[in-house]
């Protein structure tokens, strides 16, 4: 069974994660990590390297809508500070994660995803950045949510760049952007009453959808942006 | 003749701008403005409001490649700090400019661009964010330049959002992303020897190309991304 390392800023307060740890203590490690602190990311990567030597799948899922917990509805509500904090959390954090974990992904065993018969096209690992459909510029018809939309568009660019850099060389890493749908979590809580019930996914349902996509990824799909149902999204 | 307000961080050191001011003192005002300081932007907008009452065209052109003056060639070279400074300058600055100048653009006279015969589709002003072809995720085939590419992709999203918000209401503002080509300026200087001479534009040539595009903009073109030659770029 796979070994899973979950990270969060405050493990003591993460009761759901602690409950999972109680059930799967052999397979689940919980590491303290604030993705806006480069030194903590470097230390976490060193700890994983020492314990496991490699990583097969990295999922960057940490994000905020905005420090106010609500997206900006108009230009008047934007501020340099709100933009800066959102970009640090949603965009810079995941890319700095990629910087320190890429060497471990290069050493992965290729346990996730489909593999090409041609060895030159096989991958060692998969890097997933959870972005969002509202991070698609081409799909944007409503506006608003400046900080969140911009942070996800920039993360999409980072993922495309990563797919190019980590697609070169002897050991290749598949890098994709995934849209998880609207999931019943704290992030989207202020908006739940506007979401039709069938479109508000439980975390379990969304994770199952995303794992189905991840299990079918290969180097032919690297650098792309997929929704929870497997459909490709425009940039 | 149009009144032009040029802004820069250090007017005393901007010798080319001072020379222009010497030739066109009646028409050119030089304002001190650091686009990473929200209070300075607010003050500048208040000064322009007091002196002119409106604005017909806002061009956000300030940008850096990276604090090192060179784009990152690989993931190893990225840092949270470098990303943060580049995003503050290239992405947050222009959006905060839009926040404070939007009310003046809403009051513009429509002096630039083509106007629809239908009054409901006419615009009062134009907002241009200079982004870059390397800020196109869909066009990205080479990777690298993480900070610069990400900052411009995020600015493209901001521009799309602006086009939606400022396209609503009685007075409309055309908002576009423009790619100026590779221009003989300090920003691209470290790369000039790799650029074929015919592809390295003088500032005058690039500005003429961009003004030709701006003079043909209308509400049908808002929210789009054009290169110096008028061709539309993908997101």
Automatic annotation (TrEMBL), chains A, B:
| Protein name according to UniProt | C-factor-like
Q: Name one Pfam family in it.
A: adh_short_C2
Superkingdom is: Eukaryota
What GO molecular function annotation could you give as one example from this UniProt entry?
oxidoreductase activity
Cited SUPFAM superfamilies: NAD(P)-binding Rossmann-fold domains (SSF51735)
Look up and give the organism this protein is from: Pelodiscus sinensis
Q: Which residues form a coiled coil?
A: none
Q: According to its record, what are the GO cellular component terms?
A: cytoplasm
């Amino acid at each position: 069974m796979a070994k899973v390392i979950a990270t969060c800023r405050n493990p003591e307060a993460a009761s759901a994660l602690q409950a999972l740890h109680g059930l799967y203590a052999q397979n689940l490690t919980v590491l303290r990590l604030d993705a806006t602190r480069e030194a903590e990311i470097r230390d976490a990567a060193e700890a994983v390297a020492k314990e496991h030597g490699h990583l097969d799948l990295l999922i960057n899922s940490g994000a905020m809508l905005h420090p106010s917990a609500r997206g900006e509805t108009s230009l008047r509500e934007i501020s340099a500070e709100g933009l800066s904090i959102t970009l640090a959390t949603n965009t810079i954090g995941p890319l700095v994660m990629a910087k320190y974990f890429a060497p471990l992904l290069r050493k992965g065993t290729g346990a996730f995803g489909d593999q090409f018969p041609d060895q030159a096209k096989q991958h060692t690992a998969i890097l997933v950045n959870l972005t969002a459909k509202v991070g698609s510029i081409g799909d944007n018809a409503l506006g608003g949510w400046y900080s969140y939309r911009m942070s996800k568009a920039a993360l999409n660019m980072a993922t495309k760049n990563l797919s190019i850099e980590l697609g070169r060389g002897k050991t290749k890493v598949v890098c994709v952007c995934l849209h998880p749908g609207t999931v019943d979590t704290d992030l989207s809580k202020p908006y739940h009453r506007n979401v039709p019930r069938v479109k508000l996914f439980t975390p379990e349902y969304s994770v199952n959808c995303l794992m189905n996509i991840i299990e079918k990824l290969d180097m032919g799909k690297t650098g792309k942006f997929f929704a929870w149902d497997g459909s490709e999204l425009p940039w």
